[in-house]
Amino acid sequence: MVEICIIYDKLRFEERALYDKAIKKNLNAQLIDAKNLILSTSSRKSDLQFGGILLQRTVSYFRGLYLTSCLEFLGYKVINNFNVGEICGNKLVTSLHLAKHHIPTPETGFAFSAEGARKMLNKMGYPAVLKPLIGSWGRGVFPIRDEETANILVETREENGNALSRIYYIQEMVERPPRDVRCIVVDDNVITAIYRYSPGNEWRTNVAMGGKAEKATITNELEDIVLRAARSVGGGILGVDLMEDRSRGLLVHEINNTVEFRGAQDVSEVDIADAILDYAIKIAKS
Predict the structure, then answer these.
(1) How many domains does the chain have?
(2) For the chain, how are helix, strand and coil distributed in percent, rounded to 5?
(3) pLDDT at 205 exceeding the cut of 70
(4) Backbone dihedral region of 282: left (phi > 0), alpha (psi from -120 to 50 degrees) or beta?
(5) Who is most buried in 5, 108, 164, 218, counting CB within 10 A?
């Protein structure tokens, strides 16, 4: 019997759905709270007895990343692996991989000082979008519509004690409908796609912030760009987010390593948890 461990630090709909589906599939499943794990350089794989495959589902980027490194050091198979998690958890690194593989994205600039950020914004033009290198659910993402707003946000970032706040990730404001596209990729297959609509007066489309989900058609164009984007970061179980630019078409703007799928499941016919577990079983047996 395949043994599957679901590693979490916040038990959400997705982790419960994966566990419940694993039980229905007669798998030996465990829910493991990452916050309770203690490891060292002298730890051995036999100390944990976690089974054949681990699904990394922690919300915290750094906790999940470094725990994955430890578990892989012990010889465990982790989905997604450390390299994929490291790339997808950092927007700058993700953008570089997308560009390297010629995936269409919004115009994106990087600056490493306050003055550099101001120069980048003047070069790119307003409006623009300032994003944190690391983060999810649209937190810390700000539209910058003029130079005055830019100066306020840059000054605020410079006063932040976090060194990453002083590395600037700036994107153009894409002219798009009030929605984006979220595709879920499992084992080099786009298993579902949804539109995510902005709630009320909010311009961000995250379902976690109250956005509405609607099923989207997986066209040949969409499938091609999404799979190329997923492969560019190493593949696995991913959420690929795109915007529909009115003149350039589909642009990939983010790839999620620990993809949430509650909104997608509500409007999709495919059983997302089942597809994820089938992939995990395949990896465990490989």
Answers:
(1) 3
(2) 40, 25, 35
(3) no
(4) alpha
(5) 5
Domain of residue 36 covers 3-87+280-285
Domain of 74: which CATH number? 3.40.50.20
Lowest mean pLDDT among 35-44, 140-149, 154-163, 195-204: 195-204
DSSP helix/strand/coil, 246: coil
Domain-located, residue 185: yes
Instruction: Among 140, 156, 172, give the residue marking a domain's end.
Output: 172
- The full DSSP string for 80-131 is S-HHHHHHHT-HHHHHHHHHHTT-----EEEESSHHHHHHHHHHH-SSEEEE
Q: How far is CA 107 from the centre of its chain?
A: 19
Query: How confident is the model at residue 59, as a pLDDT?
Result: 95
pLDDT beyond 60 at 209: no
d(CA 258, CA 79): 9
pLDDT for the residue numbered 108: 97
Q: Which residues pair with 246 in a beta bridge?
A: none
Query: Which residues touch 42 (CB under 8 Å, ≥6 apart)?
Result: none
Q: How far is CA 123 from CA 53, 111, 116, 200, 253, in A?
A: 47, 12, 10, 31, 20
Q: What sign for the dihedral angle of Cα 98, 67, 164, 157? A: positive
Do 44 and 130 fall within a single domain?
no
The predicted pLDDT at position 1 comes to 65
Q: Is 130 exposed, middle or buried (0-12, 13-18, 19+ CB in 10 A)?
A: buried
Task: Tell me the average pLDDT across 74-80.
Answer: 96
| 97, part of any domain | no
* pLDDT tens by residue, 230-257: 999 999 999 999 999 999 999 999 999 9
The whole-number average pLDDT for the span 184-208 is 81
